[in-house]
Amino acid sequence: MKLNLSILIVSFNTRDLTLACLKSVYAQTSGIKFEVIVVDNASNDGSVEAIAEKFPQVKLIAKTHNFGFAAANNIAAAEARGDYLLLLNPDTVVLDGAIQKLLRFAWKNKPAGIWGGRTLFGDKTLNRNSCWRRPTLWSTLCRGVGLSSIFRNSRLFDSETYGPWERDTEREVDIVTGCFFMISLALWQELQGFDPAFFMYAEEVDLCLRARKLGHHPMVTPLATIIHYGGASERARGDKLVKQFRAKIQLFDRHWSKPAAMFAAAMMWLWVATRAAGWSILARRENQNHQQARLAWTTAWNRREEWLGGDHSRSSADLSVAKLVES
Fold it and tell me: Staple 144 to which of 33, 201, 225, 267, CB 3.0 to 4.6 Å?
């Protein structure tokens, strides 16, 4: 039987959320022929057994090793039989027929090559991370010196966001979030899927940038709306920051010249250094939120060699920040 769509889900210790996601997929999706493929990245919370019991129709691929998000999606896509792929995070809930609406949007806008929808937080407020602009030297400079934090949603100083736009209109975007990411199987195969060097984070940025080089222009529609809780498989914020920064450095290395990538890495260093120092000062007030922020950013700072790559030069600036953070 020819299928319109293959829905790919990668799970890792998100048992209850994955079950809720699958329940919403089957309850909300109709009028199209689809399959669901779940790759479990060696969960130890009973995810595999629960999925197999409650959703026997799912093609379940249980791994004994955590391959990460990118490689696991590549594994799932290799088994797909649909003309289109939908990458769907396990910590999502499909609302109001969102999947078939997104597929019909893709059919009407085929040259885009990649399509996304609108995401909400658990309380149904808007999650603006459904799409964003590609990073530039200017945006990394603004991030490093703090302008993007001071002037949030500014088209000039916070240029990787789409400002106050409520994600309530159809439009072309640079990057579509990997949590609700539709792509034609043909384009996926042409791009050879995700770059597995991206263990987690930035893999969809890399893929969108590579698709744009082939002349495709990703699009989003507000008609396809889901809930995305976010961060369910990554509970330690410091670890998450380290992985995000490492992915950003990888992205710069792949898409920018060496001088540009080195500049971006320096701005990343400055970003983390100022946040770690700032939260270390604020945390002295014994505010719980400040303490949590301090822990996350100092973790990212203390592990900077992991995400910067190579030997980190102990410059006078580096030593000064380290002294402030540790005091």
Answer: 267
